[in-house]
């Protein structure tokens, strides 16, 4: 089963993902951007305010393709639970903002680029915070971590959740870290048990 954590910058994904290592020791933990050279290229573009938004989309997408081939598909073939901190929905939500005015219907375009070859998640936990909280928690140090940008990203995540309500589980990430973690752990226990039945 492929389970992904999504949300705005500062929503607490990495905090949760780290604690989940202890709760689910047999799972494969991974993330996007990855630690590969593709991910390093992505991280360079994040720090570049002038990076071309189309080029940036394809850097992220190349990283995703390699991530699928190297990590996600092999682990799923072994029957593992894979837990990824960010995955394709981050592209659909973030790059659809960055490509607004560059291509028409940017979210549909980005989904279309992925559709022929990606492996969609079985379940996506959306850590829900408002853009101001996300920007403040993340430190607002790069072009994505700004409340105005994150407000547009948030609307894109809402569109994705409206389109696939059965895949997403929304968790209130303004709760204490302990309460957020408890909600996420109980969600994962439930969805993995349901999958085993
Ligand atoms: N539930 C919470 N309440 C208050 N602060 C939190 C909570 N969860 C995480 N934080 C704090 O917010 C900051 C950002 O958390 P974290 O790095 O886990 O978020 P993230 O979603 O992975 O962010 P990014 O996408 O920018 O990497 C950290 O300082 C973390 O300690
Ligand atoms: C995978 C992915 C990420 N982003 C953005 C979101 C963040 O601002 C950064 C890095 O992610 P992290 O969780 O803070 O390490 O990149 C994006 O725009 N598109 C993506 O596909």
Automatic annotation (TrEMBL):
Q: Which GO terms describe its cellular component?
A: cytoplasm
- Please list the GO terms describing molecular function: ATP binding; dTMP kinase activity
Q: Which NCBIfam families match?
A: DTMP_kinase
- Binding, ATP: 7-14
Tell me which species this is from. Haladaptatus paucihalophilus DX253
Which keywords does UniProt give here? ATP-binding, Kinase, Nucleotide biosynthesis, Nucleotide-binding, Transferase
Descriptive protein name: Probable thymidylate kinase
Q: Does the keyword Transferase apply?
A: yes
| Enzyme class, broadest EC rank | transferase
Q: Which reaction does it catalyse?
A: dTMP + ATP = dTDP + ADP
InterPro entries to which the protein is assigned, alphabetical: P-loop_NTPase (IPR027417), Thymidylate_kin-like_dom (IPR039430), Thymidylate_kinase (IPR018094)
Using the record's annotation, list all stretches that form the Thymidylate kinase-like domain: 5-183
Q: What is its EC number?
A: 2.7.4.9
The UniProt record lists the keyword Kinase: yes
Q: Name one GO biological process term.
A: dTDP biosynthetic process
Q: What is the lineage of its organism?
A: Archaea, Methanobacteriati, Methanobacteriota, Stenosarchaea group, Halobacteria
The UniProt similarity line reads:
Belongs to the thymidylate kinase family.
The cross-references to HAMAP family, in alphabetical order and at most eight, read: Thymidylate_kinase
